Amino acid sequence: MAFATGLVATLALPSYAVDPNRIGDADVNGVAVSDTGEQHVAAGQDVVTAKLRRDQFVATSSATLLRREYATQFSSYSGPSAADYVKAYVSNPAHPAFSLDAVYNTGLQYRGVPYVFGGADPSGFDCSGFIMFVYAQYGVSLPHSVHAQDGIGTPISEADAQPGDVVIFNDDSHDGFYAGNGMILHAPYPGARVRVQKLWTSNVHFVRFGI
After folding, report:
1. Domain extent for 192
2. Nearest Cα to 200, choosing from 190, 211, 189, 210?
3. pTM
4. Residue ranges of the chain with pLDDT lower than 50?
5. What pLDDT, in 10s, does the model give residues 117-133?
6. Is residue 133 within 8 Å of 82, Cβ to Cβ?
7. For residue 93, is it within any domain?
8. Can you give the CATH number for the domain in which 147 is found?
9. Strands (DSSP E) along the chain, which ranges?
């Protein structure tokens, strides 16, 4: 009988076996017991809360890699100046053969060169310095000035303009190579690099050199 009574008493205990003498206290494992028989986990003072944040994936864009390549390629330029190219062409006029396509394709080689005010070689170009340097490689000597380049070019219509011809802003503030389809290849402004982009104004005219 005593055994049966003890068995019933054991079965009557909750499955988590609350010790009634420890209600309200935290046991050695950090488990607190309320007077209703519920258990609550209590963190010790030495527990540090972890700060979580979303993982961020950062990749270097192809444009950035291209800019780095250009910067490495042209930053230490020590080759011929525009004047040197003109002199070399005079002594050997058959090299290279002049054409507007050839001029334009040569200009494309300098995409990514940084804009430098007064610059006239691949370590840095301003707008008219870029035109001057490229044309010099075909024996065409141009001044380093938008206004002066405008004054000696042969005016042509937009309909007749081809890649390699020169786009000049009507106020002589800027020029660049016409790239066809309403686009311009140019050295834009400080902080930018030689690039092809859409012409953003219609206040321009076109001139031709070398022909």
Report:
1. 79-208
2. 189
3. 0.67
4. 1, 3-4, 7-26, 28
5. 999 999 999 999 999 99
6. yes
7. yes
8. 3.90.1720.10
9. 31-33, 39-41, 120-121, 124-125, 154-156, 166-169, 175-180, 183-186, 195-198, 204-208
